Amino acid sequence: MTAFPILRRSDRVLIQGVTGAQGTFWTGHMLGVGTNVVAGTNPKRAGVTHLGLPVFASASAALARMEVDIAVMFVPPQAVKDAALDAIEAGIRGLVVLTEHVPVHDMLAVFSSARASGARVVGANTAGLVTPGEAFVGIMPGHNTNIFRPGRIGVISRSGSLGTLVCLNLTRAGLGQSSFIGIGGDAILGTTTEEALQALDHDFRTDAIVLVGEIGGAMEEDAARYAATMAKPVAAFIAGRAAPPGRRMGHAGAIVEAGAGSYASKRAALERAGVTVVDTPHAIPAALATRLSPLVPERA
Amino acid sequence: MNLLEYHAKTEILAPAGIPVPAGAWCENPDAAANAARRLGQCVVKAQIPVGKRGRMGGVRMADGPDEARAAAEDILSRTFAGHRPAAVLVEPRLPLIGEFYCAVLQSPRDRSPLVMFSPAGGMDIEEIAAAGSGTVARHLVRDLDRFDATAAAAVLEGMGVDHVKPALADFLARLYRLWRRTDAELIEVNPLAELADYSFVALDCKFILDDAASFRQPALTARAVADPLTTIEQHAAALGLKYIALDGNVGVLANGAGLTMTTMDMVSHFGGRPANFLEIGGDAYVKAESALALVLGNPNLRSLVVNFCGAFARTDVMARGVVEAWRRLKPTIPVFFSVHGTGEDEAVSLIRSEFGSAPFDLMEDAVRAAVEAAS
Description:
The complex is a heterodimer. Chain A is an alpha/beta fold. Chain A has nine helices and 14 strands. Chain A has two domains: 110 residues, 3-Layer(aba) Sandwich (Rossmann fold); 156 residues, Rossmann fold, CATH 3.40.50. Chain B is α+β, with helices and mostly antiparallel strands. In chain B, the strands form four sheets. In chain B, strands 1, 6, 7, 8, 9, 10 and 11 form a seven-stranded antiparallel sheet that branches. In chain B, strands 2-5-3-4 form a four-stranded antiparallel sheet, covered by helices on one side. Chain B has a three-stranded parallel sheet with strand order 13-15-16, with helices on both faces. Chains A and B meet through helix 4 and helix 5 of A and helix 9 of B.
């Protein structure tokens, strides 16, 4: 039983596309922090050993020989659907899709299959998952201890770069992280802000949560409804306040259309739910420290 | 990417056996007058890739050639929400007895295709929804291969359309198959007109193609309406970079969509105005040099903030790109850095040796300095 999308060191990880340049670079870092990577796949290089890991032709071939909890995909956009369906059919219940620009219809097929099999997808277009001191998967500097430190703050972010900055700010303020969940920048995601928030709310290692949102869609509004029911404090920063409407700001999901997905709507919904919404990323640790002081008197 | 109504009808609906009015694509008033001569009472519609045309005066009734000519002349001389019509579509006015709303799209909340139907078509879906509960049917397709006429008939239950239910169910199933085959984000027929003989005609069609699927939809991609881009935006697109021109004077270069938006937000927060959105995240981080050249191509620029927080993107590679662009272009505006994350040590020492000072520790301070320098 895994805590996915919260990553644990005990999670057995399969890297699909392990032999490519990015797969090799990041798998090396994952292994370096102690992530339990057990194998990789490459349809053309089955049988070789890469980074000390056995390489199989497919997830199904790997699962015939070992157990795997999480599949992490370093594959090009056109190959994501087949790789993900392979992982789900092989019996893997946690998928992390890092790839950007995956066709929406391909992800809908993946979500449909995951739903039928009881699997959970994180992404697409996520930077990954980090549990400082335990493990990380993806393309985050999870090995950099100036940025990620063990602690009790859960962080949810649509963006890898901004999420990294937020964790750096927390670490410098003496607030380590229980888990970082990168949910991804696409418009349709396997794990939403609300679902990540629920996971961290139920996690006994997490005392408070930082929600790093963006304009576009309704995920922050949906998460606000859940946040209103929570006892744990939540602070939020929403990117895109100065973005012009009607333009896609880099992420497929980051667009304000016909008045929906605006900064004002998200901020208002979160504030109504009792979430502290800050104006700058630097203000997050202070906002949290204020909310945390009654819970952890030694910091007061 | 949006398709114009005319292309959505002639290249998507009609080939799939969905009846559409016999309209004419008219690029000038004379062509519109000629079409009206043939069609009689007609409607003249601006071909623009945005909705709410009617309210902006982009859909006009015309009785005969003279009125059609005048309507076309007016429409073709105007811009609608920033779009100048490529043409007008002149269509016959049909004697309809009912108007339905039909759409297939994806629901982010449910991670599934969503089929929508309303017997109160002809208005925007937001207006239909606001008009009262029970007038819009919403059906989530959980197994992608299973939405046939039988499933569609169930969606139509209680919608007051029993007299045409088999034909409507067949239409919805057809629309769903079409949505899947074309990699559509949205296919909306509103209204689907019911004629006196209970047959149907698609009077309008909105179609949005998934950008990420353009590699396997070359014909539709070629038909899609490109965003109206500025010269710098076009150069960026050619380099595979996403640049959005803004009206300020503080240039922004950052990695990753979230961090770039945040950098813009901070410029605005500290009282400045950002000159651009430009992110070099993902695979684009190695393009820092050409990216910076784009930013510096804006003559309004008074200062620049470079904000890197490397995860996937290596800050040392990006910083080297900035240094090379700086040496090549020799800009005279001041630049303010903040650099953290993957490759930080090398990046910081490179910036220190090239620019004579270390990056700001806090990105907020770098942005504040850039805003002050620009004012």
